[in-house]
Predict the 3D structure of the following.
Amino acid sequence: MTTVAETGTAPVLAEIFARHPGAGRDALIPILQDIQDTMGYLSLETIKEVGAHLNLPVSKIYGVATFYNQFRFQALGKYHVQVCRGTACHVKGSQGVLDDIRQILKLEPGVTTADGLFSLEVVACIGACGLAPVIKINDEFHADMTTAKLDRVFKALKKEAKSND
Amino acid sequence: MVAINIDNRPCEAPEGSTIYEAAQLIGITIPTLCHMEGLSPSGACRICVVEVEGMPSLTPACSFPVREGMNIQTHSARVLLARKTIVELLLANHPDDCLYCIRNNNCMLQNLAADLGVRRRRYTGARNEYKEDVSSPSVIRDPEKCILCGKCVRVCEEVQDVSAIDFIDRGSQSHIGTAFDEGLNLSSCINCGQCIVVCPTGALHEHDSLKSVIDAINDPDITVVAQHAPSVSVTIGEEFGLPAGADCDGMMVAALRRLGFDRVFDTSFTADLTIMEEGSELVERIKNGGKLPMLTSCSPGWIKFAEQRYPDFLDNISSCKSPQQMMGAIIKSFFAERENIDPAKIFSVSIMPCTAKKFEAGRHEMTRDGYPDVDVVLTTRELARLIRMRGLDMLALQPEGADTPFGERTTAGKIFGASGGVMEAALRSAYFLLTGSELEDLNVTAVRGLEGCKEAHVKIGDLEVGVAVASGLKNAAALLDQIRAGRDDLHFIEIMTCPGGCIAGGGQPLSTNKQAVTQRMKALYALDASAETRTSHKNEAVQRLYEEYLGSPLSDKSHHLLHTHYTQREVLL
Ligand code: SF4
Ligand code: SF4
Ligand code: SF4
Ligand code: FES
């Protein structure tokens, strides 16, 4: 499979479109899923291309895509934060964790901070119930989250990002 | 016909009609919120439910067809309770803003709540906070007042083929928005305002420009000039209780003077002028092998549509500005010079059936020497508000005539207000320009009426001229697609954004529906039928303007003032 980094978006899209012949409306969701899988999110440009390909207005595609929680419209942040809202985490107070993160990062689920550092996603169950309430940042799990711990984690990440600059 | 019983009255209804339509035939109105004549049913609101004997649950009347022997109760206790509950649930997350709302006293939701006796808030739901979208010069969106009936989405898609807006998100977050929730000004919206006319609530309304007009009127140093579009005189009466189609031309002119406008001109004058310019342009294109078919340019929604969707047709579009902009241009040039007024001290207001005219007036192509041709556009609805604000009883005023030098019009200019009118007026004059004699029968009935696309072939001398008239951009798009695919028998095409033309414009009274539009159209053709001068080239005031100022049609001066060119526009489609 071609990747965006190698070739830019056009060939990647062409490959995805080729995988879903028929070009009917039924192809819309699978195409959007494939785009998100390869590119990480649905950019305005790609949605425009999909619209041209399927002969659908962009407002319609955006409407359909926002109907499902799985689609993102911004590139993931350098640190992608996933908050588990499964049952175990819920019982252990994951709503508070989510609210804290919103506060600390001034960030809503599905959105990426303006500096591109953080993005936030709510997931159903991350499969680490023993660590509840748990969050995952990129590939790393962080267990038993509390407000104080969250503060520390994000401070450290911000520092790390700065020193890397 | 099928025989049915509605509210215990035996009656008949045509096969295939809905319960809603059948009830209407016998004078019973079933309330609707999401239903739209002629468009796909959505069944979103269920306010139209009725009881049908033998059916366990209530049935939506707007989409359910009548069947032989059906027994229907349209206002039983059970039905009324269901409707009341639906309204109460709609109000659960609705702002109690009626006093501050543009639709106060003219709101379907408010009326239903009143009719059904909703007297207290029984449900309180979480309210979403949305910002008003004030980005568009034409259409303002206030999603907090939206009840998600989807009418705007359907008109935008099914009538205009634009689809600037759609349902975004889901569940309690569901709202109407543009792609990526951008401002309407950045979207593919063509500013037609058809969504406003169908919206049952205050969630959509025109960009209100009354304040700047009132300020200008109150400024003694400013000469405030009004022009009114051909269709407005036959629609504004509805705002004051007259039946659709009553012509209020003289009373409206009198009202405009009482409001403090220093001059009142008639845009039908520049409609005649447009015919002189556009007719000459057509003749020139035909004679000199110019780009054909020529497309009309007076409807600003269509112009934006062409810029973004059909840029390959931009050279087909007549270079004529619209009558509104022509009037604006000659007010701040010829009129200003003649009256010795500094154009900077003229405030030019146009009264239009149209929200897209607001957008048009702000276009950079419509400014010369730093002055906009037209300063502010008011819709028919805004003018009615202004008249009410000033406590004027318009219907009691003695009719007055418009001012010279731009008050004289022929009915060729007047019928611009109906789909087909520009074409008919153009054919009357093109015939004269090409042959030197008058069309034998001035009534070109083939291009009249409410059909979305009308065609005719007209013999002018040796030439067989193919013409087509489309209104509603979906119909226009279908025609343009034929031409893209190679159709080549057409010379001249009139395109109006709104279905039926300006009489159905997005700035017209909210009483706009098919019946009203039919009556308005009749009124314009009745004026034409009884008029003495029915051809634009016989407008003596227009001829004088050429003699004293412009020279001849398509002269350099005409080009400088009255013509323009459009370029491709990139928007998200
Ligand atoms: S939309 Fe209707 S019900 Fe809502 S605030 Fe305005 S007038 Fe009142
Ligand atoms: S003004 Fe016309 S184009 Fe714009 S959203 Fe409304 S219906 Fe669509
Ligand atoms: S904006 Fe008006 S027409 Fe559109 S869905 Fe909301 S209430 Fe209905
Ligand atoms: S009017 Fe019938 S479902 Fe809305």
Residues 267-287 of chain B form the longest helix (21 residues).
